[in-house]
Every structure is written in structure tokens, then in C-alpha cells.
Amino acid sequence: MKKKYIWTAVTVIYVLFIFSHSLKPSNVSSEDSGRVLELVQKAFELWEINAPWVTEHVIRKAAHFSEYALLGILLWNCLPACGFAPQVRWLIHLAAGCVIPLLDETIQLFVPGRSGQVGDIWIDCFGVVFGTLLGAAGLMVRKQAMNGRIKRRAK
Q1: Phi/psi at 35 (5° precision)
Q2: Can you tell me the distance from the alpha carbon of 25 to that of 62, in angstroms, rounded to the nearest whole number?
Q3: How far, in Å, CA of 14 to CA of 72, rounded?
Q4: Can you tell me the distance from the alpha carbon of 46 to that of 64, in angstroms, rounded to the nearest whole number?
Q5: Which of 15, 47, 79, 129 is most buried, with most CB under 10 Å away?
Q6: Burial 117-126 (b: 16+ CB within 10 A, else e)
Q7: Quick one: how far is CA 119 from the chain centroid?
């Protein structure tokens, strides 16, 4: 029961975190992206990699994808903890994976200098799918590890 409340709280707080990024005016959002771009460029320089393709645009799209991949992982863990049946769980997961990006981009329509982008909704949705697949892969690895431990003990 405690897991249910922890996963739900973490997931809701994370969605609010995502929405808080969309509430930032364009100049603040651009400054944030610029700082991340500088860090990434410095990292590539340290590794002596020439990466002129790493631009603020790439950073922004990667942020969308990774932000929503984490949401996919959180949903993967939250919904089973809430005790939903598998069919209901998948329906909620799918709905949240589509509605949250839609709301996120809609919020931006009302923020100075920002605009909602259909392309970003697609990137966000694919991020959720990727995160969901990572969550499923993690579960499979844990199950295999448990089976391996159980078999070793039986010998």
C-alpha cells in the first residue's frame, strides 16, 4: 500500500515538473537550453569529439524525449503499484502517455514567446514508449535474476 502512494506522489510531482518547464517564458527556457548546450559541448571537447551537429535545437528535442522517457518509466512502476488490472493499467498508461504531452504543449500556447508544437507531442509520446520499454526490460532482467538465484539455491 505504501508503494502505491510513493509511486503516485513521485509521478504526479514529476508531471508538475514537466509542466513547470512549459510555463517558463521563451527567454528563460532558451537560457536553460544554452547552459545545457555549453555543458554538452565542453564534454565533447574533453573527449576530443567534434560535434557541430549539437545545437540548441538538438538539446531541446533530446530534453523532450528524455523527460518523457522518464515519465514512461515512472508510469510503468506507478500503475502496477496502484493495483490496477493489466488491461486498465495499459489503458491509463496509454492515455497518460498521450494526454500529458498534449497538455504540456497546450500550456506553451499561453506563455509569452512560446508555441505548442505538434512535432514535440510526437517526440514526447515516443519518449514515453521508450521509457515504457526500458521499464519492461528492467522487469524482465529482475525476473531473470530472481529465477537464476532461485535455481542456484535449489542445487
Answers
A1: -65, -45
A2: 19
A3: 11
A4: 25
A5: 79
A6: eeebbebbbb
A7: 16
What does the pLDDT read at residue 52?
87
Query: How far does CA 79 lie from the centroid of its chain?
Result: 15
* Residue 55, SS3 per DSSP: coil
Cα→Cα distances 4→10, 11, 101, Å = 10, 11, 23
Neighbouring residues of 1: CB distance < 8 A, sequence distance ≥ 6: none
- Note the Cα 51 to chain centre separation in Å: 25
Q: 149 pLDDT band (50/70/90 cuts)?
A: low
Task: Summarize pLDDT for 64-119 with one digit per residue, the tens.
Answer: 999 999 999 999 999 888 888 888 999 999 999 999 999 999 999 999 999 999 99
What totals of helices (H) and strands (E) does the chain contain, helices first? 5, 0
CA distance 74 to 92: 13
Q: Where does residue 83 fall: left (phi above 0), alpha (psi -120 to 50 degrees), or beta otherwise?
A: left
The C-alpha cell at 28 is 528563460
